[in-house]
């Protein structure tokens, strides 16, 4: 920890980056990389982003999206595993399937503990408004990361990511120009992520 403190004092770091480093250091994560990209990063092709991050292919580039269940019924708000918002991590090369997210969410809720099953009509997921996503996570557009969010949300990891070899991927790091690399094992060990088939 002392070595980390010296490094932090020697380098200009934002509060977000500093908090992430301490979070990962406390958990003794060894795979973490945090890179600060140029301001025009999102104007680059996926291939140029891949090269900047040193990833084997563009399939290693992922993003975190916040979805809202627009059919959420407050009558079931106390039911286990029935959620209004969910964070999902998918590859940029994949297309999110809201139908598959709905199917997973419904089956997960219906199979949880011994409570009422919520009907299919009360599940319908779409991209959450940017201001809602910011309020829930504390992170802005193109900056959302599953770590240190303001609100603990259910987290789904696309099962396609588990097929990567080496088992490592990149995602947002809490600021638009911060990119976070982590091994799949350490990601699963340090989040509440559920692996799910959520892309088409």
What does this structure look like?
With 200 residues, the protein is of the alpha/beta class. The protein has a single domain, classed as YbaK/aminoacyl-tRNA synthetase-associated domain (YbaK protein, Alpha-Beta Complex), CATH 3.90.960.10. The chain is globular. One of its GO terms (molecular function) is aminoacyl-tRNA deacylase activity. This is YbaK/aminoacyl-tRNA synthetase-associated domain-containing protein.
Write a compact overview of the structure shown.
This is YbaK/aminoacyl-tRNA synthetase-associated domain-containing protein. With 200 residues, the chain is an alpha/beta fold.
Q: Characteristics of this structure?
A:
200 residues, alpha/beta, YbaK protein, 5-stranded mixed beta sheet, 3-stranded antiparallel beta sheet, 6 helices, 20% strand, globular, aminoacyl-tRNA deacylase activity, YbaK/aminoacyl-tRNA synthetase-associated domain-containing protein, YbaK/aa-tRNA-synt-asso_dom_sf
């Amino acid at each position: 920890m002392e070595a980390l403190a010296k490094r932090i004092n020697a380098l200009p770091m934002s509060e977000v980056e500093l908090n992430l480093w301490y979070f990962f250091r406390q958990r003794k994560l060894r795979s973490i990389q945090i890179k600060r990209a140029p301001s025009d990063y999102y104007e680059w092709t996926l291939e140029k982003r891949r090269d900047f991050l040193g990833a084997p292919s563009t399939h290693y580039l992922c993003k975190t999206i916040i979805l809202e269940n627009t059919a959420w019924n407050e009558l079931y708000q106390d039911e286990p595993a029935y959620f209004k918002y969910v964070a999902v991590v998918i590859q940029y090369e994949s297309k999110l399937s809201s139908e598959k997210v709905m199917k997973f969410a419904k089956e997960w809720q219906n199979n949880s503990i011994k409570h009422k099953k919520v009907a299919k009509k009360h599940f319908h997921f779409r991209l959450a408004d940017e201001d809602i996503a910011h309020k829930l996570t504390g992170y802005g557009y193109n900056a959302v990361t599953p770590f240190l969010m303001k609100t603990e949300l259910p987290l789904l990891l696309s099962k396609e990511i588990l097929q990567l070899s080496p088992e490592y991927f990149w995602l947002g790091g809490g600021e638009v120009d911060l990119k976070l690399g982590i091994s799949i094992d350490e990601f699963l060990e340090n989040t509440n992520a559920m692996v799910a088939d959520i892309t088409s």
